[in-house]
Structures are given as structure tokens and as C-alpha cells.
# Entry
Amino acid sequence: MRRPAGTGALCVLVASVLWGTTGTAATFAPDAGPLAVGAVAMGLGGLLQALVAAPQIARHAGRLREQRGTVLLGAASVAVYPLAFYSSMRLAGVAVGTVVSIGTAPLASVLIERVLDRRRLTRRWTAAAALGLLGTVLLCVAEAARAAGRTGRAPVAGTLAGVGLGLLAAATYALYSWAAHRLITRRLPFRAAMGTVFGLGGLFLLPVLLATGAPLVASWSAAAVGTYIALVPMFAGYVLFGWGLARVPASTATTLSLLEPAVAAVLAVLVVGERLPAAGWAGIALVIACLVVLTTPSPALRRRGPGSGSRVRSGARQGSAPPAARDRT
# Structure
């Protein structure tokens, strides 16, 4: 029996809170470069996912081979994402890097689903995404203006480079979310799908970790940071994300994860000491409004009653995507 989409949304939101701590955690290992932090985060986290899911991967190896194109696309995206994401935060700051990387992912996800899956959008999803994207733009503009006012042109160039890498991170985040969701809706267990995609991505990241990871073992504090990022936000967070992807479409999941930049911005202020202008706080408020719009059950859903759940589950058993996968909540 499948759990309702609300449970999937909650899983994604909890994962987003965990992910929002990664940028702040990385500041406690200043000698470790962004490539090392990204490689240890998704590399070790991905390999651990594959290890835990090994029995399911072995059981469904034949079907995974049939979907090898989707698997390889997802794995390559998993490998590129953390390198671009952590480099973006290092260049543009924790708040801006996270905002751009996660805030533009819903647009990339929608584009992918429109082109590859021919899925339509509802007015509700569009309104929620507009609120979230406006909030992320406000956050980004506020942080860029603060950087320009504080130290001049050089940091602005770094911010722009960070924004570019953030856009790359957003595209790869949307791609691996789509790939994992596609595997799950083709009747592969989410553990097998996520373990394979993230395990292969982790293997691709091992050479980067070997080449850049020495600072992560140079001190106990740096090792603790690497261990935390790999085990909590990346391993536990992506287990929750996989549960969520089994129940909601990839574009909905990436929109829900707009909570991550809000969490990251607040932590950057409270822990790292970054200052967030009034426009940035307004952006966080809009992101929260987006999440409220997206996660509040619609009147139509409430009117369906208990019987509608059985129809969704029946469709899922037959291998078709649930209604949430064909239409935005």
C-alpha cells in the first residue's frame, strides 16, 4: 500500500531542512576546498546508499540494465551536482549559492518533464512556483547587493561565477531527481533506484575525492564535518528524498526543496555571521508561502474521500504513475 502524497511531501521537506545545514557545516572545514566537500558529501553518501540497497539492486539488476540510459544520466548528474553546488557557495556565499542552486531547480525540472514526459501544469503549481522563485530572486539580489556594497567589483565577479555554477547545480539536481522518479514509476523499488543512481554517482566522485580530499583528514574537526555531511544530509536526507519521489512528481519535489535555501540563509545569519537584508527576509517569507500553497490539500482532494486512495494504489500496482505524477498537486 502506498502512503498518501502528503507523506511524500513531508519526507522531502525534512530532507530539505537537512540539506540546508550543509553550507553552514562546510564553513567549519575552511581548508577543505569545495570539490573535496562535494566529493565526500555525495561520494561517500552515495556509496553508503548503494551498500544499504545492495540486496534490492541485485534483485532488480536486470530491470536496472534495461533502464541503463536513465541510470547513467542520473549518476552523471549526481557526480556533477555537488561539485557545482559547493563551488557556488564558496564563490557567492552560503545564502546565494544555495538559493540559486535550489531556487532555479523547479524551472529546470518542469522543462525536463514538459519535454520528456509531456506533463501539464496546474494553476496551483504555477502560482506556488512563482512565489518560490520570486522569493529566491529576492534572496539572491539582496545578497549580491550586499557583497557589492561591502567590497567592490571583485566579489561581484565571484558572485556572478557562483551564480553560473548554481545554475549548473540546479540543472543537474533536476536531472537526477527526474531520473530517480522515472525509475521508481517504472516499478523499481525506490531503494534500488536511489541506491543505483547515487552509488554510481559516488563511484564517479571517488577520483575527485582522492585528488582533493587530504584536508578533510588533516584535523578532527574537518573529518567530523565530512562525516556529518556524508551521513546526515546526504545519506539520511536522500533516503527521505527517495521516499518522497516514490509519492510525488520530481517537479513537485524540487519545488518543495525550496525550503532548503531558506534554511541555509537563516543558518548563515545565525551561525556563520552573514547578514541578510530586509529583501532577503522577504524572500524567505515568499518561499514559505510557496510551500504552504503547494502542500495544503486542495478542496477537490478533500472531496474525493477515502475511496480515491484505493484508485491511486490500484493504478500504482498496475505500473502506471499515480495521478500526482501526471498532474501537479
Q: What stands out?
A: The CA atoms of residues 80 and 220 lie 27 Å apart. Confidence is low (pLDDT under 50) at residues 305-329. The longest helix spans residues 153-185.
